[in-house]
Structures are given as C-alpha cells and as structure tokens.
Design goal:
The protein is α+β, with helices and mostly antiparallel strands and about 70 residues long. It has one domain. The chain is about 10% helix and about 15% strand. The strands form 2 sheets. The chain has a two-stranded antiparallel ribbon. Strands 3-4 form a two-stranded antiparallel ribbon. A hairpin with a 5-residue loop joins strand 1 and strand 2.
C-alpha cells in the first residue's frame, strides 16, 4: 500500500470524540487504533483487509476495504 492509500483507508475509520483524529480512530470492531501503528503487532496496531476476499473474486478497490 502507498502512503496515500493508507491515509485514504484511515480516513474511513471512525473518529473518537476527545482524541486527535489524525492519530487515533476506531476500527470496524471498535478497537482503538493509532495511525503510526499501521502494520504493527501492537495493542494499537491495525491493517487493511478486503471486505470480500480476493480469493473469492474480490478486488483492490479501496472503497471495499476495512480496517
């Protein structure tokens, strides 16, 4: 993923009231994540995944991704 693609997906994540939304968001399951922890195995780490797996015909459209 490029930096622009990562930022585009980050901007889809839910903002958290009272926290800096450039650093903190919530993922699709409600876990608190931090922007600079992308790709890390960390309590605030996160990754980008396909809503519909590529192995089942999904594609790389960023509108069809989930954090």
């Amino acid at each position: 993923m490029t930096a622009n693609e990562i930022l585009s997906v980050w901007n889809k994540a839910r903002k958290v009231e009272g926290l800096d939304d450039s650093m903190f968001r919530k993922d699709a399951c409600g876990a608190l994540i931090m922007y600079d922890k992308y790709g890390m195995q960390n309590p605030f780490g996160w990754e980008i995944d396909h809503i519909f797996p590529k192995s089942l015909g999904g594609d790389d459209d960023l509108l069809k991704t989930i954090i």
